[in-house]
Fold this protein.
Amino acid sequence: MRKFLLACSVILTAFSCNNSSPNDIKKDIQGDSLAQTIGFTCNYPEYKTNSKKLFNRYMSLPSSLNKQTLLNNIRDSLFTCWLGTPWDFYGTTEEPNNGKIACGYFVTTLLRDIGVKVNRIKHAQCASEEMIKAVCMKNSIYRFSNKNISYFIDEIKKQDVGLYIVGLDFHTGFILNDVDEVYFIHANYSGKKVVEKEIASTSAVLATSKYKVIGKVF
């Protein structure tokens, strides 16, 4: 059984893979990744609870205000906690900066912690396109083949503000279409090999993937 799961992970990864406010985020001077401030303190259990409450509120009353409140909370708490967590192809940690995480497990773990129904293990190990079809709204799924990064970002900006999953040739992660910017948040196998939040238009990983499939979570 273990051999089967490892085979699934290897073959199908082609479509997968420091006391201040959580809002206190700064731009890393090295490239476009966004890093936590030294003073950021992560209370992950509390952040999960808050995110699930806000997610349920939005699902019950999907207003623009409730959506933006949810997005801001996820961006400034859950995602910020995970920044800098080491990437590993076989990483399965469920706690930020306590162990290592693979790209697929990063996506499914965050989805679960937000409150989205997802099979954390199954969807992390197999094709991200299958995860996208299982989790995302069907009319929000778009596929791009051999399109440059500028075209891809322009198409995302045409969509509504929200949280998306993106599947690439050999990788997967989140696209956050915020009010002012589009971000790519992922367990990066390249460069520093850690969880990063990048400006999507300047991400080398996004730019070099010939195939991209994207679906909206909310």
